[in-house]
Amino acid sequence: MGQTISCAGCGCDKDAPSSNKKNALVEIEDEGAIRGPGRIGRSESMTYNLKQQNLNIHARFRGRHGVFVADAIFDEEEQPDPSQNEQLQKTEEEIQFIEETLMDGSNFVFDFMTPEQRTELINCMECICVRKDGIIIRQGDEGDYFYVIKEGAIDVYVSEEQQNQDYNTPQDLSLGQSDVDGNDPSSSAKRGVFALNRSDMNKESFGAESCVGSPQCQENHNGTKHRKTMISLDHDLSAIKRSSISVNQDDTAPSSLSGSSSLDANEKLVCELGPGDSFGELALLYNCPRMATCVAKKSCSMWRVDLCAFRRIMSGVHSKQSSSTNEFDALEALKKVTILSDVLDEPALARVANALIPIKFKCGEKLCIKGEVGDTMHIISSGEVLIHNIGLGDSQFKDIKAGPGDFFGERSLLSDKAGETRSADITATSDTVVTLVMSKEQFETKLGSLKDIMRLALLQKKLMTISSFATSGLEPFQFDMLTKSAKEVEFEAGHVIAIAGKPTMPALYLILSGTVQISDEQKGTVNVLGKEDHFGTRILHVSQIVNNDDPTAEVSTPLTIEVMEPTKCAILTREAIEQVIGSISRLGKPSAPIAAKLNRNIQMDDLKKHRILGIGSFGSVWLVEHKEEKSTYIYALKVMRKRDILQHKMTKHVIREKNIMISVDHPFIINLVATFQDASSLYMLENFIPGGELFTVIHKPESDGIPNEAARFYCACVTESLAHLHKRNICFRDLKPENILIDRDGYCILIDLGFAKLVLNKTHTMCGTPEYLSPELILHKGHNKEVDHWALGILLYEMIVGQSPFASPGLAEVKMFRKIVNAKFPFPDQRRHGIDVTDKAKDVIARLLTKNPSERLGSLAGGDDDIKNHPYFENIFKNNDLVRKKIKAPWLPQIKNALDASNFETYRNDDHQYLGKKLTTSEQSLFQEF
Prior knowledge:
By secondary structure, the protein is α+β, with helices and mostly antiparallel strands. It contains 26 helices and 42 strands. The chain is globular, with a radius of gyration of 31 Å.
């Protein structure tokens, strides 16, 4: 299989032997075994075994070619039984031995575990014995265990092919040895190709922290940039021999491994491992193929743990023996805090839960002292406390015992001052008490002022009771945006808001306090409205009829509106309303069902196929046109074989992608036009985007990287599309230049929603592209839309610099992951490297590439608006000019005609019928919702 290119509007991968593409980490099986339907690669039979097809992802991250499959450990909607992580008894000496190995600095995975997580991991490790000459792991086999050598010795062998690809050292092979990041001083200073010596590494040149390593690029024989790959997929992976390891376990003896020690002729000894060494940590992150073969030099014993146990621990799913202080418990407790749960939805509560800090108290220690001022809210996670000396003066109350799930100090989040005066003493009565704490300052950083949130929540409830808004089928985020768009204005008594027969501003007024008098001279009526009443809806509709194209134009009204006493109103102008919902004519009209957004008038027989844009494991993608409307309606038709979808357990994921595509409507996100199916295949008809990938704009044969203004424009387009998804609680999860196409106007279109998922709290699937993975994704800590903000920072860096910040040719994947989780990266120097990264660009990139997801730009109180409001994007989002395409694009693709597909590779147009086994009735029923 060659390298991959995404087709216009379809997100498929095409073979491109000369392209420099990224690996898409194919997500865990419960999330989808490929990057979405239509993820493609060339095949004679077109029926690959996906798992074998992608065994070599571990070697291919630098080229970002192809995809790989990582097996699911559990379905995210069905949390596993905590007892699955079996606790195995060990002596104190054994525990200390394993912990010292884990914490020796060579395995970055364990550096980011809490002591409790490490303890549970150690408790889950089993001891196994291996006879002399037994093969423990074989190069190319899928890895699922991490090993710590207890006794004996192990020889490590690597094939000549692997050695020829610069993976001939233990650290490069991820065998648990200490690794030292090096630099290649011979790298060119040409734009997009730079290397930094350690003397270049300073705070000014980097993000929030100093640099580790130096990204580099490499030229191939024809002068184009590419990232080296290790193993070609063209060979027959089914011929790779599995080691014949058997595991025998009883109640008294450790497991025993025995395997054939036969080695391939081209495998060479590269090192020896002994007691205290470890190997296989990447197997705890995903099902990567082994980089080497390990053979017992003599009988030895080892401790091992599998990726399932590791992921359960890192995702917060602990065993019953563990202390329960994770965010899931906190979320449930927060739902009981009425001043929060009444005004915050579940995603917002989850953000609070994820930012809570655990604090321990000893028995007898006071958590709060009566009379002192406190600004923190506490949720008791474990242990018990006594609330005593309650009340002031004659208002005294009985002592109260409180335990896990109880809370106190929540009103301090509402205080206008430094905090709230505590009205009681609170003392720990258990040996250890753990509370999850958040200060007022932390809360306001994450979500904003609680008082403002409560005020907006009340305003939103009022807005939702107004008939013309309540019956419009508006989404929750639209009500939220309307509420935030309302301006509060105070009027003095006697102020006249409108005079009958005179022009007035079309707007909705919600009365927050005071009274107004509305006189209708034509009807001879006088009404007095007060708090929680509203007026102005009739004027809004008249405005739309009279001045359809000008939302700011005043309109004559038959009403006289006068303020009777000091009054405060929240005002929503027609212009503000239309910026959220589109035309004001939508008010009072229910939106069409989601499925109705598809064009039911187009049938498969109406389409004429012109050429294949890509071929894949599930089928192909065709450039098609409507037979009756030639050269007017041009589409990309994705064809997916049902049998292959069933084989790879992708049915629900294909349906999920389709439903998400239907639910979104944005000019910068690919549009799904129609869906079809027949007895053998599914079809998705999408807009054809003719300008090619953003990747080819960034990476040209003669150079890498684009000017700052162009990067700013493209990044702004992507920010708009991501913000649209995030408002609907949808995570995209595979942002990279290959998933962004350029339309005929030069604007970016986000494609391939195969990994997109509705996420209210957190999801725990490792998916995406290695170079674009965030720290929390790598460490299986659970993730949300923050991973998209991280990827946006990587994208902006790659556009300006010409390469991603954490990867470089020759750098082992484990080293790249270490650099990612440490969030250390370099910026080039303009004088030395010829690449100009402005201070504003550096700042926004550094804020997006913040290690802690809760502190990342886009994840704070302002959400995606914080990104838009960053000085780097000054004026580009003003007046919605970007979405309205009023800003000149930096580059326009040359399009000869409507059917011009010259930006995509040429394929033989084989339109053969599928001749495989027919689906049964029960199998066909699985596609009923498509």
